[in-house]
Structure prediction request, 385 residues.
Amino acid sequence: MSQWISKAANVFKRETVEAPLPFEIACECGQSHTGIRRARHQHIVCKACGGSLFVLPKDSYPQPVEKPRKAKKRKKEQPVYDDVEVVDSPIRSRRKKKKKNKAEAKPQPSAFANLSNWLSSRLTYLVQSFLGLWTPFRMIFLAIVVIGGVTLYWSILEYQRTQAASYLAAYVEAGKAAVEDQAWIEARQQFSLAVEALDQLGRTDNEAQSIRQLQRETHAMTRLSDKTLFELLDEIDKTFPDLTPEQRDIEITVLRDKWFVLTAPIRKKQIQTEDGEMVDTFEIVFPWSPNPQRPVTILFAPLEMKSWVPPDRKVSLTIAGTFSDVRLNSITNEWTLELDPAKSFLWANPETYVGLGFGGESFETPEERDARLANQAAMLGMTPE
Prediction:
């Protein structure tokens, strides 16, 4: 039905003759070819070089019909009066003055405000750029990497703990066998490996404290000075007047690096610091001195000492350690030595104490010695085996 209507409508229309569409095409050799486009494409052979040329057919779609443009209406020109002066109304003039005053009163931004605005814009841009990097795919990939890394770290840690637990008993058994054989270097190495295993396991129980105590004691036994403290001080006293200040510093430095085991009464004492402040410390009391004209004072002030030594009496203790400070007072002519609280410790095991060569003291019996060491082990919160 629609085709019949369109055919009937086209009966009264005149047939329009299409104008020919010329073309012009240039060959690679420079020869120009012209002609009329046809309904189908054309192949042209260049007469100069014999090259083949292709010509597109004419457009099968009708050309668009241009719509007639509406003529624009001209505005009426306003008459111009040369002799008439235009005067604003009072209301309009007041509005103009207010706008002008507002524009003049508007403050200009300061340099600090400009800098803060610039920093704010830059930060906003950086934050938006950073957030723009994290697409959902990248966030999922990052989460997978993090979970995989944590899982791998946990697996390695668990493997190390399993290995440490399996080797711990062997290290402790080998260390105790070395103590019985008085092979102190081997004992120190085995107990050091056992302490590393305990650190990996995070153990702080009574058995762990006993193993750490054996490691400290065997370490001190392999670092002991070949001479007693008083013998070293006596040698320094004899040669001290003839030494230069540099040689004196060397002698004192050597004394600091040596390990000593001291058994003596300890009492509370107050000393004055360089700032004039009185502080509490503890003094190791010796009944004699190698040189009466140059007495020796040994100070020891760990935090636990307050619970070990009552303020009103002396307590006999066995302490092993090195000296953190050694000085000779030129006014009082007195040696002052301070045990390093980070390295010094109370002795607790009778087996290692006997290995020091102190088992034949005349001032106490083996039973008294074992009771004193057991008391010191209780002070440390562990029971020696």
Remarks:
- The first helix runs from residue 2 to 10.
- The longest strand covers residues 260-272.
- Residues 229-346 form a domain with the OB fold (Dihydrolipoamide Acetyltransferase, E2P) fold (CATH 2.40.50).
- The mean pLDDT is 78.
